[in-house]
Amino acid sequence: MMNGQSGEKHLKNRFMQTTLSILLADDDADDCIFFKEAVEELFLCPHLLTMPDGEQLMEYLNYEANKLPDILFLDLNMPRKNGFECLSEIKLNPKLKQLPVIVFSTSFEQEVVNLLYKNGAQYFIRKPSEFSQFKKIIHQAILTLVTPQNIPLQTRENFVLTVQTI
After folding, report:
1. How many CA atoms are closer than 13 Å to the CA of 89, on its beta-carbon side?
2. How many Å apart are CA 139 and CA 123, to the nearest integer?
3. How confident is the model at residue 17 (pLDDT cuts 50, 70, 90)?
4. What 3-state class would DSSP assign to 115?
5. Among 74, 100, 114, 133, whose CB has the most other CB atoms within 10 angstroms?
6. Hey, how many other C-beta atoms are within 10 angstroms of the C-beta on 48?
């Protein structure tokens, strides 16, 4: 096992050669900027596309169903069509249901989290107010999904990603 800095350097070197396609659905322009900065710090050479609401997200996914992104980060509270509706549509569509969806929100209600887990989200992230924590959680979510040996079996216990769990 690698120690902190050498392990982090190894991951950065590995991802410098990786092109990752990430789709972000979030209506908050500031959060989109923070997200982009967090992802770029991973040296992923990401292809990041943002959608400002759920309707545009679903139009895009249905149109591009043959070349889906690697990961979808989905804000729960969006105009026109919220994250719940989008998640349900994605998981009911045979062409979209394999898309890993990570839902995030500023609120944390256990009933909502339980429903998201039941409806097939990969993870739930409560948006932290500090950028450094936001960056750590985004990094952990991406690394977990793109590093096959790191993908734990999805259980209720590891569904909610927090700074304390990373």
Report:
1. 16
2. 13
3. very low
4. helix
5. 74
6. 17
Reported pTM: 0.82
What residues make up the domain containing 150? 4-165
Helices H / strands E in the chain, number of each = 6, 6
Give kind and range of the element (H or E) at residue 93: none
**Residue 73: what residue type?**
F
- CB-CB contact of 9 with 58 (8 Å): no
Confidence of residue 53 (pLDDT cuts 50, 70, 90): very high
Q: Which residues pair with 47 in a beta bridge?
A: 21
The SS3 of residue 29 is: helix
Instruction: Report the number of distinct structural domains present in the chain.
Output: 1
Task: State pLDDT tens for residues 102-155.
Answer: 998 877 888 888 889 899 998 898 888 888 888 888 888 887 776 655 455 566
CATH number at residue 144: 3.40.50.2300
Locate 115 and state its tokens: 């429903």
Q: Is 158 helix (H, G, I), strand (E, B) or coil?
A: helix
